[in-house]
Amino acid sequence: MFTKNFVYDLFGRSPVRPLQAHMDKVQICVAELPAFFEAVCADDWQRAGAQQQKIALLEREADALKKELRLQLPKGMMLAMSRRDVLEVLTVQDRIANTAKDIAGLILGRKMRFPENLVPDLKHFLDRCIDAVRQAGRIVHELDELVETGFRGHEVDVVNEMLTELDKIEQDTDAIQRRVRETLFRQEADLFPVDVMFMYRIIDNIGGLADEAQRVGSRLQLMLAR
Predict the structure, then answer these.
(1) Nearest of 34, 26, 67 to residue 51 by alpha carbon
(2) What highest taxon heads this organism's lineage (predicted)?
């Protein structure tokens, strides 16, 4: 007798759990950024270097999971999720880990020091962007239920609420980002122009964490709309 999960179990080497494992690794990678930033603000470059190495290692581990999933992904259709759907979500998740590595690498490479009055908002900005990544991770972990129900029923309402919360978080990050940029703009004349240029780049990259997290949500939202 077929259970309701028979077809799902047939693909039970399903792409869903490896996709979730990849997102988990991405979240662990991103979660190391606050400790890295604390070390930078304390001018502790040895500790910052150790944190950067940890972030780089986690990014490589995420990259290995990405490559493994791509190699094992069947070429046909998989229930409610096509191969293209999986690959697109995977690609966006991968960019989140890459961005975390880029942030740490650039700050460490230039031994960047941020103006003291910028630091509180910058920390808040980073924390809120990480919140967006976590929320995207929660949504990815709903894929099991969505696939089993054929992207229908109560689970769709649950995920839509989570997507709405992700949008709110991303809007928060936009507002904080504007505030950080305005604070930096007001003191540009007191800083070295090259340093200012790279500070803006770091601000944009931190915002990129939330932007990519929202893109994960957007890809899943498109699946719900089909």
Answers:
(1) 34
(2) Bacteria
Q: How many domains are there within the chain?
A: 1
The widest CA-to-CA distance across the chain, in whole angstroms, is: 75
Per the listing, tokens 């929202």 go with: 214
Is residue 97 one of the residues assigned to a domain? yes
pLDDT at residue 13 tops 70: no
> Do the domain assignments include residue 86?
yes
- Which residues does 184 contact at the CB level (< 8 Å), separation at least 6? 115, 118, 196, 199, 200, 203
In the block, which residue shows the tokens 């809120």? 128
pTM for the model: 0.91
CA distances from 42 to 89, 96, 105, 203 (A): 36, 26, 17, 19
Residue 151: pLDDT band (50, 70, 90) is: confident
pLDDT in tens, 21-40: 999 999 999 999 999 999 99
Distance CA 146, CA 46 (A): 45
